[in-house]
């Protein structure tokens, strides 16, 4: 057993194929998949596009579960295959099951996430924070021992996640970020579902600019 560490796996794939307003092949996206663990065990955060890459990143470690930040296709489209090949469990907040079903139909996750749900990997605790706004069931995962939050599509470098859908809410995502993320130490590293990481302090400084622009 070694020291707990975080690994970033960047995956690419197409979403929205065949949907109205989308190109026939869909739209290509690049996602971050995060693997937390040591030499013996690992937890996966999100399961985007490429089950092969996720399985390879876990390797021969004991896979303790796949934690999903929300139900959008690009974060869950490799979840069922990856979980099956790793023989592990899937965790999703129940408020996002309607989105999950758009991708996976009746093949449901194994367990429902709730605010405060905690997981232990390599002696480090990961705690679930419900952060609705991008989607109703969006969550972030706090890893205090490594000064990290896995922020999904709730918080990026440069602002909050998109709220353009009828089930989304800009005021709600701002409330979530204020209540759940901006209370964290400023040096906490936010590792999002897409793009580069940032810090809580860097994003907190721009809150007024987000409010002024409205997104």
From TrEMBL:
Domain Metallo-beta-lactamase intervals: 30-194
Classification via Pfam families: Lactamase_B (PF00753)
CDD domains: metallo-hydrolase-like_MBL-fold
The organism's place on the tree of life at top rank: Bacteria
Stored InterPro entries: MBL_Glyoxalase_II, Metallo-B-lactamas, RibonucZ/Hydroxyglut_hydro
Protein known as: MBL fold metallo-hydrolase
Organism: Leucobacter ruminantium
Taxonomy of the source species: Bacteria, Bacillati, Actinomycetota, Actinomycetes, Micrococcales
